[in-house]
């Protein structure tokens, strides 16, 4: 074991003990018992509640070099009532590549929505690194109602672009934009190699879209950044924007994306769309 790994294990052991000590038996429905040297939970109680072996958990808390899985860490997180920051810290100390996605909608700070709303005339949204749409303002909703109207577990920009028929998709500059989006997804995927929600998403999207599968196979990677994005609207025509991506402090791997019009004509068209939110971006049609 390297010096760095040993130090991380020592920190993991101390962190687990400190979190265990703050949870009273009553908080998890256990009787207080007799001869309890600490007001917190015993190791065997944590193991019982998390559904893991007492010996295994003892070794984990002692900092021994044992393997852990995301499922076990999640069970321990729930037992110790860890918040998002503590859960992320636990994963780092256990040398897991990423924290599996939790309910990102609940984790978003209410202030984020207020910021989106204050941006007013500009379409703005929040995505995670898998391109799941987490929040948006009224202008974004008017421009991309086909996305925001979907159930929360289906609001994914990549799925929308690759699986939806091209006639129903407002993105105009697909040839430039799609490879960049897939490369950005690939960079995020490297932090979630053991996350079944990520691997399953890539598998399903690859099966649904040969175009995505071909781009995924190139193994290109990229960071989120400013890019030109052109959208088509049924009533006003093309809207040319520059999307600017800004990382948020919490939840992990989320970013706010703001679409700024590239010219006055596009600015006026966005204003019209915002004033007429019920006019669909794609006119009704049959396939």
From TrEMBL:
- What's a Gene Ontology MF term here? DNA binding
One Pfam entry for this protein is MLTR_LBD
Q: Which CDD domains does the record associate with it? A: HTH_XRE
Against SMART domains, the record matches this protein to: HTH_XRE (SM00530)
Which interval of the chain is the signal sequence?
A: none
Q: Which SUPFAM superfamilies does this UniProt record tie to the protein?
A: lambda repressor-like DNA-binding domains
Source domain of life is Bacteria
- Stretches of the chain forming a coiled coil according to its record: none
Residue span(s) of domain HTH cro/C1-type: 15-87
- Can you name this protein? Helix-turn-helix domain-containing protein
């Amino acid at each position: 074991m390297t010096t760095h790994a040993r130090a991380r294990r020592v920190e993991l052991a101390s962190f687990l003990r400190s979190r265990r000590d703050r949870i009273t038996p009553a908080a998890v429905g256990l009787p207080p018992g007799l001869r309890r040297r600490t007001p917190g939970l015993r190791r065997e109680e944590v193991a019982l509640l998390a559904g893991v072996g007492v010996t295994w958990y003892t070794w984990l808390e002692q900092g021994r070099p044992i393997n852990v899985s995301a499922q076990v860490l999640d069970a321990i997180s729930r037992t110790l009532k860890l918040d998002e920051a503590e859960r992320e810290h636990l994963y780092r100390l256990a040398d897991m590549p990423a924290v599996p996605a939790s309910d990102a909608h609940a984790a978003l700070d209410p202030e984020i929505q207020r910021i989106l709303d204050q941006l007013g005339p500009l379409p703005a949204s929040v995505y995670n690194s898998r391109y799941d749409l987490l929040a948006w303002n009224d202008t974004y909703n008017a421009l991309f109602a086909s996305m925001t109207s979907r159930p929360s577990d289906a609001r994914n920009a990549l799925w929308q672009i690759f699986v939806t028929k091209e006639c129903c998709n407002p993105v105009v500059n697909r040839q430039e934009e799609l490879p960049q989006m897939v490369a950005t997804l690939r960079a995020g995927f490297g932090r979630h190699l053991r996350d079944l929600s990520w691997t399953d998403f890539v598998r399903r999207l690859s099966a649904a879209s040969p175009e995505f599968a071909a781009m995924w196979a190139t193994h290109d990677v990229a960071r989120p950044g400013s890019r030109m994005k052109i959208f088509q609207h049924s009533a006003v025509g093309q809207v040319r924007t520059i999307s600017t991506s800004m990382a948020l402090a919490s939840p992990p791997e989320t970013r706010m994306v703001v679409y700024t019009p590239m010219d006055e004509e596009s600015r006026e068209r966005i204003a019209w769309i915002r004033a007429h939110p019920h006019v669909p971006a794609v006119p009704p049609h049959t396939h």
